[in-house]
Amino acid sequence: MRTFEYLKPASVNKALALLDLYGDQAKLIAGGTDVMVQWKKRIISPQVLISLRNLAELSFIKFGGGLEIGAGTTHRALELSPEIREHFPVIHDAVSNLGSVQVRNSGTIGGNICNAAPSADTAPPLLVLDTNVRIASTKGERTVAIRDFFRGPSRTVLQTGELVTLFSIPAPLPRTGMAYSKHTRRKAMDLPIVGVAVLLSFEEDLKTCRKAAIALGVAAPTPMRAANAEAFLAGKPVDKTTLLEAGKIASEEASPRTTIRGSAWYRKEIIRVLVRRTGLICMERAKGAARS
Amino acid sequence: MSELFVGKSFPRADAEKVTGKAAYINDIKVPRMLYGKILYSTRPHARIKNIDTSAAEKLHGVRAVLTGRNTPNVRVGFLGDQEPLKKDKVRQFRDEVAAVAAIDEDIAEEATSLIKVEYEDLPPVFDPIEAMKDDAPLVHEFDARGKPRRNNILPLPWKLIAGDVNKGREQSAHIVKDTFRTTWVHQVCMGASGCIAQFDVNNNLVFTSVTNVPFGGKDRLDMFLRNIGLKSSTRILTPFVGGSFGSKLDTDIYEFIAVLLAWETKCPVKILFDRHEEFTASPPRQPAIATVEQGCDKDGHLTFRKVDMILDNGAYTSWGATTPSVMSIPVSTLYKVRNIHFEATCVYTNNIYAQAMRGYGNPQATYVVEQSMDQLAEAAGIDPLDFRLINANEPYTESPMRIKITTCPLKECLQEVKTRIDWENKHGKRDGRGVGVASFLHVGGGARVYLSDGQGIIMKVNDEGKLTIITGGTDQGQGSETIIRQMAAEASGLRYEDISIVLGDTEICPWDVGTHASRHLFMVGNAILMCAEKIRAKIRDLGARWMRSIIEADLNKKARRDPDFKAPQIDWSVLENPDNLDVCNGEIFVRDDPENPFLRMKIARVVRKAHLLGTGRGEMVTAEAFYDPPNEMIDREGKGNISCCYTFGTHGVEVEVDKETGQLRILNYVAAHDVGRAINPMLVKGQIYGAAIMGTGYGLTEEMLLNAGRVMNPNLLDYKLLTAKDKVPIDAVIVEPIEPSGPFGAKGIGEPACVPSAPAIANAVYDAIGVRIKELPITPERVLAALKQKEEEGV
Amino acid sequence: MKLTIGFSVNGDSVEVEVLPHWNLLKVLRDVLELTGAKQGCGEGECGACTVLVNGAPVNSCIYPVLEVEGKEVTTIEGLMDKSGRLHPIQQAFLEKAGVQCGFCTPGMIMSAFALLKANPDPTEDEIRHAIAGNMCRCTGYVQIVESVQHAAAVMSGRSQERAGKE
Predict the structure, then answer these.
(1) A 168-207: CB under 8 A from C
(2) Strands across the sheet containing C3-9
(3) Of A211, B129, B258, B732, which sits with the fewest C-beta atoms within 10 Å of its C-beta?
(4) Residue B85, Cβ neighbours under 10 Å: how many?
(5) Which domains does chain B have, with CATH numbers?
(6) Which residues from B are below 8 Å from C103, CB to CB?
(7) Are B274 and A40 in contact (CB under 8 A)?
(8) Which of B451, B492, B452, B485 minimizes the C-alpha distance to B471?
């Protein structure tokens, strides 16, 4: 019979010990919204599932200028967090429209990132926030910038025996606006055809771009930063024209594929449009934050 | 007397469903039940060289492994063009190659994975136009009778010719011609397909089925039993069904396979589809390539209409191939046009084959006709809504197909849309926002597609005064339990809460053609009226005979208990004639003296008296009726008045198009429907809302993506049903002309609200941005591509 | 090799033998014979299997059953009161025709139940957001939304006031 052993370690350390013990025979499971489906579809058939659900040490949102999110935090917890809604709306945008309430009650941000789908909704926000990913193993801890974390579709830098414990997000600069836009065929229960996160920090004039971060989902084999578009915006006044240009550059940087969910040319078009529109939301949000 | 039950929004009589107690096929287990699982082809077109089932047979818990090579060769299906298990050749990815029965689902699944099939690939053909060519690979080398086939065109030459199209062309001031394409969409019932087959001690098949055609299904299974050498017959049981939308009209291949497995193992066998299987192995609505040409004179009166359809039949034939019989109704009769030429060609390909889906061809046909209407209106320089008003059908007229239109408020529906969507102010702006309109007509009073279009009904009144209604219909969610009670309470005079309904067992229930073609309410309502009349007469007759003695006994009793009681003077003669009596709301009374408390009693008392007479001459109150309506089958020319009445309607849609992304937003949606009389306005609206959203999905998001015959999106993530967040603000407008042939004036409304959505949206998109999308669904990608092309062409 | 786990279902403690790869839905339906929750897709896409675990709606078809140990599960069967009276949400789905074929209904009602617990007076958008993971093919959601609105009004004693507006 096709089955697996399901282990529920009581702590991260115990989970790491189990990972060491079972090596490649084991797979981590958090909310199971991806893993259970992949198992049912016979995409994966691990002998052992090591569950991270219910590990309190992985499930927290710590806000103090910057932000620390335990990898086992559910999307729903993030969606309902007033701090995230107010101070990191780019995350709120992404998690509040990911799957359904049911999916968000189980699925976790760590699972979404480690599953490493090009369409992972939480990836572009974490990318623009310059998130550091803390990785633990029995040998100790290491930290990897999220932009170095993805290696390909369903592939990450994680080695056998490692698990992600924490996403650490530095405090944004003052006068920062951030937003995530997801282009879909329907308004819920959908993966992005393209997902775009933008973060813009302004000089005191609330016009000149001090820092721009643009991240794209489903634009390449991995979620990516649009470095050329960011470089273009830096130091420039942000308006419709510059954002339009930034969108064009980001679109050129992208290398999306044609799949049943969308054509490459269409994805490029949408990136162009969404970078501009999301940038405008960022401007509004930065101004709003400055007023309040 | 004003009506007590009909016309009111009674709550749904569905407490089982809201409590989780309703048992669907998924929920039913019987003792010793095995689980059946089917192995499907991995090739679109190939010879089967060898099937090795030895490993599967050895697996612990496996009770049977069947293939086309160890089962009787019996042809099934509308044209008999397939066998349940394919023996020599596969013609599509969903071809059933082997089947397993095992003690649990996991073992059954594992066993199928152990079956090894060797194939020799044959050249496939997936495009129906390619498949029509002389040198195309033959999907079927022989027909059901063993005669060699020359090509892939089905022997079903659908044709309807009326008047003279050439003459119409000559009379035309304006002519438009264009080609449109629709694609596969799936019924996507939330409850997937399934059945339980078991044989009783007499080798009769007891078949628990999700069918909405129990007696048709019984016929097909009975024939199948005969063909596999059994002399027994079938009893069909229908539990709660998780939606139908046409998918449960035919007996599907898995059902025959379950019968084979049950016969082989002598155990009950259940086959239940998973969602992937539902998408890949249950037949959807077929795609059409339609060329439509229409003309009008200088005043905008239609002069002719010519429609040629090519339907991708897939590899085998189910009811999908007969949908042109319904397509011919809108093609010939939607708006007044005398000269008609309609042809439809069904072509075998190595794609999945098609079945019925809500609207039965009408959505495809109306999609092309109504877009062409807009094109023609533009060519003639007439506002598209006015153009439709000029050509709108009129009550009590006959169309070129010999459709006899009775009540017809199409103009009212158009006017309702015009007002409510604010047509005058919104049409013709081309500013990214636009309004579009499309109408429909559909059968509303049955559809005689078989020699009978009848429905039987049995009623019995027990001595608590409760009425049991036994009917051959089924409920797949439309609300029979509620509306049958309403109509029966009205017609019989018994109380709404005292009515119970028995359906879902062909051994008990009287014969019925099936709950399809929007016919259920119309048929069951008329049958109820016929039957209830007999029940009333019988109750009145019993009243005339026994009310007096009951009343006298009551008075005597009262007098014994209360010495002061003075019995009233009663003219007993009034009770002697049943015509003086009436029944209403569970009581029998004197018609001209309804308030007289002494001459009024519960029906139960009369019936009980008749049961417990003490004389050996007791009676009971039962009645039966068979309503077979006065409609016609279509003749060899494709003409005939197939339904007793037709329902009309118009949808108006306002959209906003995002010119940068091609995305659409529906800002306003008016659905004006002729329903005859609304028996239950809330439930009527429920049908309109649900169907209009399904139609909107057809227009915007839904499509089965096939790549070289393989369904690429067999799941609910990539087959985009609309979710609750995809709000379409629908204003459902009920127009109620009282239909003389309908029960209480009602027409059927189950299907048609899904018909005009897609063309109305397409027309609205054109009004918004000047681009016509001629393919379904209208995806943002297609809209943007069309906009870019228009830009490049500099139009 | 079966394992024994204990949890609570609709207030009753249960102990069941399970295989590790089973999901919660399978155990509810096949072992505990609580067949109200349905399998519509088996992949967490349709919501027909929605039940509450510790008050939160989840897709039980992809919820590993071993994770339910020690937790409280609420299913559609747990909504009626002890005397068998329908819960106001169940009643509202009948009165406002939020049910047609009924297959999505148990899951739909559980999502509505969780919503109204957290938010007794939701807006239409909030209702649609909360039930977006419950697919329905029959109703087009219009009368489902109306049912939830009606239930909210009844449950918070605003039904009179609402009824007056209609």
Answers:
(1) 187-189
(2) C12-18, C3-9, C72-74, C50-53, C56-59
(3) B129
(4) 26
(5) 15-122+192-241+248-281 (3.90.1170.50), 288-449+633-793 (3.30.365.10), 455-627 (3.30.365.10)
(6) 24, 189-191, 242-243
(7) no
(8) B485
Q: Which residue has the tokens 């809201």?
A: B18
- Compute the nearest-CA separation of C30 from chain B (Å): 9
Residue ranges of the domains in chain A?
5-51, 56-169, 176-291
**Domains observed in chain C:** 3-78 (3.10.20.30), 88-159 (1.10.150.120)
How far apart CA B687 and CA B592 sit, in angstroms, is: 40
**In this complex, is the C-beta atom of A47 within 8 Å of any C-beta atom belonging to chain C?**
no
Q: Which residues of A touch B (CB under 8 A)?
A: 1-2, 183, 185-191, 260-263, 266, 269-270, 273
Tell me yes or no: is domain A5-51 CATH 3.30.43.10.
yes
Enumerate the residues of chain B whose CB falls inside 8 A of the CB of residue C163: none
User: Which chains would you list as touching A if contact means 3+ CB atom pairs under 8 Å?
Assistant: B, C
Kindly list the averaged pLDDT for each block of 10 residues, start to end, along chain B of length 795: 90 97 97 98 98 98 97 95 97 98 96 98 98 97 94 95 98 98 98 97 97 97 97 97 96 98 98 98 97 98 98 96 96 98 98 96 98 98 98 98 98 98 97 98 96 96 96 94 97 97 96 94 98 97 96 94 90 95 96 93 96 92 97 95 98 98 98 98 98 98 98 98 98 97 97 98 98 97 97 81
Class of A176-291 in CATH? alpha beta
The residues near B379 (Cβ < 8 Å, ≥ 6 apart) are B174, B175, B176
The closest of B370, B448, B178 to B764, measured between CA atoms, is B370
- Cα separation, C45 vs C27, in Å, equals 19
* Chain A residue numbers touching B726 (CB-CB < 8 A): 186-188
pLDDT (0 to 100) of residue C159: 63
CB contact under 8 A, B661 and A191: no
CA nearest to C47 within chain A: A102
Q: What is the pLDDT of residues B1-34, one digit of tens each?
A: 579 999 999 999 999 999 999 999 999 999 999 9
The minimum CA-CA distance between A190 and chain B, rounded to whole Å, is 6
The Cα–Cα gap between B340 and B253 comes to: 37
d(C-alpha B647, C-alpha B418), whole Å: 19
Which residues in chain C have their CB less than 8 angstroms from residue A51's CB? 64, 66-67
Ranges under pLDDT 50 in chain A:
none
Is 0.90 exceeded by the ipTM? yes
Q: Report, as ranges of residue numbers, the positions in chain C whose pLDDT lies below 50.
A: 162-166
Which CATH class, in words, describes the domain spanning A56-169?
alpha beta
Q: How many CB pairs under 8 A join A and B?
A: 47
Question: Would an 8 Å CB–CB cutoff place B682 in contact with chain C?
Answer: yes
Chain B residues touching residue A273 (CB < 8 angstroms): 660-661
Q: How is residue B363 written in tokens?
A: 């959505």
Distance CA A176, CA A211 (A): 9
Using CB atoms within 10 Å of the CB of residue B389, give its burial: 0 to 12 exposed, 13 to 18 middle, 19+ buried.
Answer: middle
First-to-last C-alpha distance (Å) of chain C: 59
